[in-house]
Amino acid sequence: MTAKARRRVALYLRVSTDGQTTENQRRELEAVAEKAGWNVVTVFEDAGISGAKGRDKRPGFDAMLKAVTRREVDMVAAWSVDRLGRSMPDLVSFLSELHARGADLYLHQQAVDTSTPSGKAMFQMLGVFAEFERAMIQERVKAGLARAKAQGKRLGRPTVGPEIEARIRQLHADGMGVLKVARTLRIGVSAVQRVDTIGR
Length: 200
What we know:
alpha/beta; five-stranded mixed beta sheet
């Protein structure tokens, strides 16, 4: 037997609604495993659970990752990439976790097998695009802040006007506490505290 034929494989099945079934996914993946000579050691399933939900809301997905962490499987096989998650960063993070434990991923619909050179290359490219996406988000945030500043907009928490500041200091001088000052002037406690701190 080859090393590939001895693979311990976990199937991961997921459908988004209770009206759907994972049976077709299971049947197709079991057929692939039989043809490839893989040993399906366990099946994890999340039925009626959206792929957009986090790991803590997907018990099957969580259990599958724990099995990978314990090195109980050599490969995870899923019907399609969207069965695993709904965002590229999440997928790349998942793949990184698999590779850190020496496990591979097989995606039936995309015909991706990360144990092959072409499969590894594709997911390396996914990692590049995920990094690009993060960089673009950061650039958009920076550009937005620079634009707001150029338009004269004050960034950060809004401050109270000089009249209110004077009233806060006067009420403090009269012995009124922070909470009562805030209620009297109908402003936030944090605004009173900021003026009080600046005045010290």
